Predict the 3D structure of the following.
Amino acid sequence: MKRTAILLMALAMLFLSAVAGCSNDSENVVTEAAVEAEDTAEALDDTSEDAELKAEAELTADSMLAAMQEYMENASSMTMDMSFTMDMTIDGERVITDIRYTYQVTSAPEAAHVSVTVTYEADYEEESMVTTTESYVVQEDGVYVTYSGVDGEWYKMEIELDVDLMESYSMLDMATDCTLAEETQTVNGAECYVLICQIQGDDLQTLMDEMGLTSLTGDMDYSALTVEESIWLDTETLFPVQVTVDFGDSLTAVMEASIDLTEEDGIDFSMEPCMIMVNYTGFNNVDEIIVPEEVIESAASYDALYESYSSDYELTFNEDGTYLLEDGYTDGGVNLAAPMGHTIDESSSDSTWICFDADTSDDEYAYVFYSLYTDFTAEDMEYIYRDSFDDYADYYDDAVITELQTVTIDGQNVTYVAVLCSYDDNSQEMEFYAWTELSENVFLLIGGVDYAYGREIQIYSDLPTLLETLIDAIQ
């Protein structure tokens, strides 16, 4: 749970920076349509029922965006919620990640309160996993501090904030090529003007990064992607009522390219169209954001969260000289001795990842590591090495990947594969992965790397013999 807590607390803080100050470019928006904005604001603020007065105002997309920006900068508070759902199917297995935010912010004093709920559903999981974090940003003695909590545990950290929390709003600042729809629409009970805009690739990359959503989509290239942004503005106040960023089907192709799914991989991938939706639920409606006294009194240093996380997976040394290898999620584990010719590397090891250095000469360096996987299949294990080895093929023209091979060692079927490449004429690298099923859907992964300088690989050149040594280390 602490791994999830760290992720979600980071996600909450990323959201704070994204919706409340990721940009300092709001002046550009106002400047470009300053005159039109002033006319629009005056017309909309007039309380007379003279329809001709409003008709005289030059209602354009740019003028309304500029007026909206001006009004929002003068607002004393704001409340909003946001949703994002990613629905994917990979080889027939459906995976749904749903993220919901609620957000409050005040300008005097500057403060914010955000709650993030992440729901994860997968066909291979018996139950949905739901985690909620809550965070406050307030000023204490002239310094901004955050209080972040999950499952009743609170942590405090000082932060630097270089913009006003009410100053700018990234999804609105990123709108380009906006057009005003001919008809108004009723959204969330308000009559609204509708602006249809676009967000270009670079801005989209920034938006996804700052909202913490790239952790879901991976190392994607958004530069060639343009998506539609729709903005609904209250006809009476020009405050935003709703904003959506509609990815349509475009995200599927980009994601497929980013994870390099090809016909040769034999992996079927599809994703439902997804959308970011923000509902602005109120302006000038929050008097003060106060951190509860029990939160302040119980909050530990934010560093304590990471210290606690690290201590959960400290390397466990047994009395018989072996080390306990755990999977990090269940109570299962296996004991490992140092393989013959190897010594433990405690600085690189914990109870979920145990690393041993090989005894080598000065011109060669080699090491192996062990990791445990539960609820996995042989196909899952094969995908792990494929994902890693694809990088070699991309970066090294001479990369040679061996065929999958299986040997039987001490009654255990061990499948292995290796890649060999060279950095230059004087160095070689070899990496291998091997796995064996210890019990039903419980796999032990053994990996290794061998670097040789000025000569060919020697330490791990004979993989079948090496694997016997590595399997013998399992107690």
Remarks:
- The chain has a mean pLDDT of 79.
